[in-house]
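Subject: sequence -> structure tokens, single chain

Hey, anyone have a minute? Need the predicted structure for the following. Not urgent.
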Amino acid sequence: MEKRMLLLVVVLMVAGLWSSAAWALRPMGPPMAGLEQSQMSVGFDFSWSKMNLEEDGGTAEDLESLAYLANLGYGISDNWEGFIRLGFAGISAEDFEGNNQFAYGFGTKVTFAESDPLTWGGLFQMDWTKSEDGDVEIDSYEIQVAAGPTYQMEGMSLYVGPFLHFVGGDVGKVGPLLETLDIKQESIFGGYIGAQFDIAENASWNIEYQTTGDDASAICTGIVWRF
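Reply:
Had a minute. Here:
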């Protein structure tokens, strides 16, 4: 118990030290398959994130996003799982207070190799978000690709690894005079660290911190039940 609490404190301290960077990314969790073949899971993910985006002719700074997403997973094989996410997310900035709208995504996780207590794997996920404020609309998608080790011990796991982050979409005015500007990420390279704790039989809670080279970052958390 003391070891698990110590590792949780370490994760939170790292997040605190890095949080001076800007906070718009989505939860990834351990980069490995967590379901056996034909096993299913249901969960809830929450993320608070912020980032800068490049747009035609300039930079959109400090775009914040809150996302509330249900997560449904399925074990395709013992080393491969897929999942979908459905929920709501909003985007806001200094002069833009976007509303919460339907958000969705999908992804997959694969286990490459296991050598107790380390498991090596990777993941791919893609999410779509839209938000409006009056006649201004942001419509965006994000892709994250990660790989790395997960260190497993009794009652908890610690994971860390690099990832690639891609953003696309547009921001513009809606209505008869449609004007749009393309947006994209400033940096595709990032890293993340997290911890997952067993809270009940077949149930776990995780918390993680993500950051990229352009000072985009996020704190994400989630609960999942496997059955």
